[in-house]
Amino acid sequence: MIKKIVIVLALILTINVFSENIITIPEIDVLLDYYNVTLQKGDSRQIVMTDRTNGVYLGKTYSSRNGDYKINDSNAYTDYSAYSNGKLLDIQVAPTATLQPYGLTYNFPDNIKTTFMLLQNENGVLISVSGDVMSEYSLIPSIINARKSEMISAEIIKNDNLALFTSTDEKNKMKYCAVLYDTAQYTPLISSSDENAPAEGLVKTGIYAGKYTSKGEVKLIILFSDNKENLLAQAKLYKGKYAELASRTKKFFYEMLSNCYVQTENQLFNKALGWSIISANTMINTKYSGMGIYAGFPWFQQNWGRDTFISLPGTSIVTGRFNEAKSILKTFSDYQHKEADKKMYGRIPNRVMDKSIIYNTTDGTPWMIREAYEYLQYTNDTEYAKAMFDVAKLAIEGAEKYFVDEYGMLTHADADTWMDAKIAGTQPWSPRGNRAVEIQALWFNQLYASAKLAQITGHNDLATEWFEKAEKVKTVFLEKFWNKKGSMLFDRITKEGKADKRIRPNQFMAITVPFSRFIPDENGALILKNAIPKLQLEYGVLSLDENDPYFHPFHENGMYNKDAAYHNGTIWGWNAGLSVNAMTEYSYQDFAFDFTLNLADQILNQGCIGSMSENMDAIPGKNGKVKLTGTYSQAWSVAEFARVFYQNYAGIKPELLENRITVKPKFPVKMGKTSVVQKAGNGFIYFVHTNGTYSIQTKELGTKQITFIFTDDSGNEYSSQFDAESDSVYTLKTVNSQYFCNDKELTVTKTKSSYKDLIGELKFAKMKKTSYPVLKKKDFLKEIILKGKYKL
Q: 0.90 exceeded by the pTM?
C-alpha cells in the first residue's frame, strides 16, 4: 500500500532561478579529441566505419592492407600508400596511430600524418598526408572496383583537377571512381608494373587510381558511383572542398556526441560510452528501402526487425536522433504484413533485404510497438501517433486471429523468439514454444502501449479493451510462470502446459521491458536474488545456467556445432542491458557498475575498437582474457550499453505525452560527479549529480512537470512532483530524511520499498565446473534433440 509522507503543505513548486547553463559542452575539437583512441606500433585491431547510407568499411589497424570499403555490397576502395620525398610512409611501423570518431590517422616523425575518413550520409572517401617538413608528399589510392587492372581505364579532366577511372568489370556495380586532387600533380598509375610505380609500397596484384604529388600536403576526395553523369556532377560540386567536407564530417560526429553529452569522473566509462554511441550509429543505413539498423558486422548487414527495435533506444532515442528513429519506424511499418488470410498477418518483418523479406519472428512486432510509444514519449509527435495506432491495431488483430490462446497469452513456434538457432534449418537447438517468458512480457507491453496509442488518437473503446486484456495477461502470467520452488520465473510453458525450469536471462525482461509494472516488486527481487548469482559473470551474462546438462562452455568447439552453444551457455552482449537495468531497478547500481566497467574495458581494449561483439565464451581463455565470438561489432550490444546509462543510471525518461519528465537517478559511487545532456522534443534536459545533490535545467521545453524519485540509502524510493520552467535551475537534495528543491521542502510519496534485506548481497557467478556433458560426447545435444529426448 502506498504510504504518503507529508513533509510540508505545498501544492506546486514554482521557483524560477534563472542562470547560465549548468553544463558547458566542450568545443568541437576538444570534444572529438577526448574520444581519440591511441594505438602503439603493431597494435592490430579491428575497426568499422560506415557512411550511413549503403557503404561499409571494415578494416584493421597496422595492417598492410587496411580494409575494404564496399558500397551496396560492391567493392570500391581498399587502401592508400603514402610517401615523403619518395620514401614509403609504412603504416605498419608508424610509431602511433589514432582512431578518431571520424577517421584513422597514422603518426610519423616530423609530425607527418596520414588520415583516412569516410563522408557521412553519402558515399565517399577523404585521404590526406601532411607534415611540418615541407617535403614532397605523394598519395596512391588503391581501388577494388575491378578484378584486374586491365579492366580499368583512366581519363583526366584537367580543368576540374579530376581523374576519372572507369571499370569494365561486369561483376562490379561501382563502375566509376573520381579522384579530386586539387593542387596536386597527377601521374598515371593503375598497375604496380607501370613505369611510374614507386619501388615499394604497392601490392603487385593491386589496382591504383593514380599517383598524386605536392609540396607540404596532399588531400584527395574519392567518389564512387554506378552512374557517370551523376558522379561528374557531384565531383564538380566538391571541387576544392576537401577542408569543407572534412569539417562537415567532424561536425556530424560532434553533433552526435554533444546532443547526448555525458561527463563523469570515470574516464574509462566516459570514452566507452561515447564509442558505444558512435559504433551503434555505424549501423544506421539506407541500403534497402528506407532507413534501418544493421544487426552487426561483418556478416549481419541486413535490417532485422527484432535487432532493430532492441537497438533503437540506445542508437537513436536516448541519443536524440529522433528523425532517424521515426524513419526506421516508418520503414518497418511500411513492410507490415497486411494479408489477413496469412498467418503472418499484422507482423513486421524479421529481416529486410532487397529480394528477401521474412516474418518468422514473434517478438519483432511487440518490440516495434514498444519503441513507437517510447519515440512518442521522447518527442510528443502526436501527429505520428495516428500512423502508429494503425500499425498497433493491425498487429493486435493478427496476433489475436492466429496466436493468442484461451488465457490471452501470445503463442509462437519453438524458434520464433530471439533464441532462434536451428539444426540445419529444421529443429531448434533451444526450443521455447509455445509461450516464452519474455514474449508474454512483450505482449503485455504491446497491449499496454497500444492502449496508450488508442487514447492519444481518440479510440477510447479500444483503449479500454486493450488495457483490460493487458491486465488479464498480467494476472494469468504470474499464475502460470512463477516457479515457487525456485523463486524465479519459468523460461516457457509448453503447448502441453508443462513448465520449463531452465534458468536463462529472459526472465529479466519481465522486469525491464514493460512500461507498466508487470510482476510484483517482491517477485522481481526474488528473480535478482536467485538468477543473478547463476547467470551474471563479471564479464557477461550466461544464456543458460552452468549447472544445466545442456550447457555449452565454448561457442566454437570441435565437439559440437557452434549453433548448439549459441543460446545454451554462450554469452550475449545485449543481455548485459537487461541485467544492469534490473539491478539498478532494485538499487544495486554499484554492483552493476562494476560489471559495466568490465564491458567498458572490452569496448576500448578488446576486439573491435569502440564496439562490442555479439558473443563470447562462458569460460575465458588460458590467459584469463575473455574470448570474443560471433560478429565483432553488434548493434544491440553497444546500443544497450548506451541505453542503460541514460535510462537507468541517470534515470531520465521524458514523458512528453503527459507533459512530464520522470527522473529516477541511480548513480554508482565510482561514477563520481556526472553531467548529462538528454534531448527531448525540440529541447534539452541538463542534469548534474554531485555527492547526492542533483540539479535539473530544461531548455526550450516550456513548463514541464518533473517527477523526481529519490532513493534513500536503504533503497526505498520516494516520488515528488514540481513544475519546471525552461532555463530555470532546480537543485534537489536530501537532508536528514527530508527532501528539498531549491532549499524548500517537498512533499514526497513512498512509491517502492527496499528489497535489499530480501535480496541480500549480490555476487558475480563463477565458472566452477571442469567437466560438461557436451564435451564428453560428440554432438551430445544434437543426438538428444533428433531422438526426441529433449528434457524440460
A: yes
